[in-house]
Amino acid sequence: MSLSIDAKYNETKESWVVNLIGDLDINSSVTLKDRLNDILDQKESDIEFHISELAYIDSTGLGVMISLLNRLDKNENAMVINDPQENVYKIFKITGLNKVITIRKEGERIDG
Amino acid sequence: MTDKISMTIPNQAQYVSIARLTATVIANTLGFDIDEIEDIKVAIGEACNNAVMHGNKSSNITLDFQIHEGRFFVEITDDGEGFDFEEYAEPVLEEYKGRGLGLFIIKTLMDEMIIDSGMGNGTRITLIKNKE
User: How many Cβ contacts (< 8 angstroms) between chains A and B?
Assistant: First the structure.
């Protein structure tokens, strides 16, 4: 499965809201990285991800999240990941990324 | 299964998902549970990522699947430049530069990982998951 990326700026939240559907892997991570840099070039702000339909993430996808985090940190903006599936959450957990990224399930903060 | 199943894919990012899905089908056929199947899928995906990153795009990645004495062996071979495993260091998150995370994930998810790589000689990564 490929990756579908839907990004919209929410004026009320003053944040980018990004929906990811499909597989975030070596074949799609560069596309996502470019897209995220594009939207932040348009407007530097917080980003919230909704990933309940993200079926798969690998180390290249985590790499995108880490470099995004670095850019957001520099501009004092924040990142939240909402509703990862169990298998996706496991990858954040075993790599320790859940300690540096805020992850929420059904609105409740579980990590970060 | 004492027989060997092999597949070859072009050494390019767009084909890695085919290797992952095939691994899922084989692991399911062998009777691994859902969590184990997911671990195997991720680990094989990471090993293929490694081949794509270090390998030669005009060549292939070969995957050999085999059960031996209750252990599931997957060999992922590429004929790229190889890399110096001696220089591999486990990633430190705070200083993460985007390398080494894939091998770390494999080590966490599989029971054993053997890397046979030399500069210029390609790489063979053997992943082992115990069946019982």
Answer: 57
Q: In chain A, which stretches have pLDDT less than 70?
A: 112
Of B13, B38, B105, Cβ closest to residue A59: B105
Query: In chain A, what are the domains?
Result: 3-111 (3.30.750.24)
Render pLDDT for B17-70 as a digit per residue (tens, 0 to 9). 999 999 999 999 999 999 999 999 999 999 999 999 888 888 999 999 999 888
Residue of A23, A54, A60, A69 for testing the chain B interface, max B β-carbons within 10 Å: A60
Decide: A44 and A16 in contact? Cβ < 8 Å.
no
Q: Which residue of A has its CA nearest to B91?
A: A95
Which CATH fold would you assign to the domain B4-130?
Heat Shock Protein 90 (3.30.565)
